[in-house]
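Protocol step 4 of 5: obtain the predicted structure for the target chain.
Materials: sequence only (see below). No template structures provided, no constraints applied. The aim of this step is simply to have a reference model before the mutagenesis design in step 5. Sequence pasted as it appears in the construct record:
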Amino acid sequence: MTPQQAGEFESGLQKRRIEYLSKTYPFASEILNFYSHILAFQNNLRANLDAATRKDSSWAAQASLADRSTLDLTQLLPHFRGFLSMVEQHAPAALSKTAHELSSQPAGVWIERLQEYWKSGGTNEDSTEILEQFLPLAFLQPYAELLGERTPKAPSLITVRLCPLCGGKPLLGVLRQEGDGGKRYLLCSFCMQEWEFRRIHCAACNEEDEKKLPVYVAEQFPQMRVEACETCKSYVRSVDLTKDGNALPLIDDLAAIPLTLWAEEQGFWRLRQNLLGT
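Step 4 output (C-alpha cells):
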C-alpha cells in the first residue's frame, strides 16, 4: 500500500467513525463535524509535508522532536492562511473570531506564534488554556506526528510519564489487546506517538497503590475509561480497544463529553485536555 493509499484508507475510517458517533451521541455531532474539517486539513497537510520532506532531505534532517529550539517554517507557512480560513468558516463562534483576527495579522506574527509554540507544545500548558493553544497545536500537530514516526525509538525499560520522543504530556491512554487482556499505552498530546505504560500506575504522580487508582466506566461509553488517582486527583481518559476494536482514540475521546463533566464534578482534573477541550 502506497503512502497515498494508506492516507485515503485512514481518512475513510475516520469519516465512518465520525458519522457513527454523531448518530450515537447527537450532543457531540457539532464538535465531531468541526473536527472532521480539522482532520481533512491535517491529513492533506501531512501528505504535502511527507512529499516535501522526502524531496528535501536537508530540511527534514534539521528538524528534531528532541531539540525544539527552532522551527523551519519553509514548507509549513504557505499552508497557514488556508488553515485559518478553514477554522474561521467551520469553528464555533469564539474560535472562528480568533482565527479571523489572526489571519489579519502580518506573517511575522504567525511565525512568532508558531515558533514559540513549537518550543514547548504539549509540555507545559495549563489544561485550562488548551483552547487558547488550539490554532498552533492543530496546525503543527501533523508535522510533529510525521517527525515522531520517522524518529528511531529506543527500547524503554521503565515507565515514563512524558513522551520519550518530545517530552509531551499524555493525552490519552489506549488499551490494546494482548493475550487474554490488554496492554496499556499512553498517547502523546503533541507528536501523537504511543509508549507502553504500566496498568497500575498514575501518569501524574507515580501512585502505585491499586486501591487509590479507581477506574470508572459509564454504560453510555463502554469503550471509554476514566483512570483516576485519589492521591493527586488527576485522571487520564482511556480508549479500550478490547471492548470496541472500531474505536479511534482521538475521535471517540471528543464524543465523550459527559465523562468530562462527571469527572470535574467528582473533583478530578484531566492531565491533558483534548484539542477541543471536551
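Step 4 remarks: The chain has two domains: 3-150, 170-270. Residues 170-270 form one domain.
Proceed to step 5.
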